[in-house]
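Re: the 269-residue chain
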Amino acid sequence: MKLLRAWILALPAYLWSGWGAIASLLMLVAAWELVAAVYGPLVLPDPRTAFATLYALVASGDAWPELAATARRALAGFALSVLVGSALGLAAGVSMTASAMSRPVVTVLMGTPPIAWLVLAMLWFGASDGTPVFTVFVASFPVVFVGALQGARTLDNQLRTMAAAFRLPPRMMFVDLYLPHVVSYLFPAWIAALGTSWKVVVMAELLSTQDGVGAALAVSRSHLDTATTMAWITAVVGLLLAVEYLLLEPIKREVERWREPHAAAGAGP
């Protein structure tokens, strides 16, 4: 509860500090406008047309069920990859033998195209939610696993020895020594896995389901409706940015407050 209250209080300042991200998005929109002006609306509609189409989809209520289905599947696969990948990665990082044995498996998983896993999932799960969720999980799992493995393997042994010499309590050792170091590896891996989840779930829906953004893209493609296609792409990217910057990034900042200079200064006598 305390963490939630601190997150809410810090949200306005966090949003204000995101001017750099907003500027980069505006530059991307400007590049989009330029390409649309060169090639015309048949190839790429301009941003105003895409945003107007998206607004019409949202206002009519057609967008919400598709976005909800996509978000549910992406977040379910992402959550599974975070839980399983983090736990197994940390466990493998503690043991040199487990680390060496896991590397070929991770290489195989990372080298196998998601489309191959999707075909297998379609054979196993059919046109159910299991197909996109499984495909997202198996595509995101290696990213999380490697991040957790590196976080556990790179912990400074001198810090561990010092903590043991000063007989730090187990809770303090975990919160002040292990957790900050591991989190600095885990969060980038989680954010990368989140992006992978969104890309893979749309691809899986395009080929295996009757609802979701991927299925809506299949319909707009069959109608050669590039404006609706760009509207759906904009919607799913906006949803991804909202999850990352309004959920994961504030949590990361709260957990990594120990990196801030004033936090170190406040820890003194």
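Residues 262-269 have pLDDT under 50 and may be disordered.
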